[in-house]
Amino acid sequence: MNYWPVFSTNMAELFPTYCDLNAAFREKAKEYAVDYIKGNNPENYQPGDDCGWCVGTAVYPYQLCGGPGGHSGPGTGGLTTKMYWDYWDFTRDPRILREIAYPTLHSMSRFLTRTVRAYDGDYLASFSASPEQMLNGRYISHGAYYETIGCAFD
Length: 154
Fold this sequence. Notes:
By secondary structure, the protein is α+β, with helices and mostly antiparallel strands. Helices cover 40% and strands 10% of the residues. The protein is built from 3 helices and 6 strands. The protein has helices at 15-40, 75-91, 94-112, and strands spanning 59-60, 63-64, 116-119, 122-125, 134-135, 138-139. The longest helix is centred in the first third of the chain and has 26 residues, at 15-40. The chain is globular, with a radius of gyration of 16 Å. 29% of the residues are buried.
């Protein structure tokens, strides 16, 4: 989340560092994507299929805390990946689009298209959750977040 405003604040020079971090955890994030799809949307999983990559809300330089779940839905990856579009849009560098932005966006789209189900003609994220959800005016404790379908975050 610390990198989300780098382009709107004109600090694009900070983003290549995040790209390096993302590249370092990408292979593990692909494993998490398969696990997430198999566990939450098994009807959208085909053995050997490329499920893309995913990320939860907690990524540190020395630890990737798994994919979405617990207190966030799959939308974290979409918000994270939007920065790659911003990177290309800010620089308009064809190399960035070809080598960095497009592969990241394409892989995330492979994940996100497998996280939805049809509900009355609408495709909504299932499962979905938001860390901001509260119960009786208090934040719900970790591990007990309200699971829903298609929350605005996703």
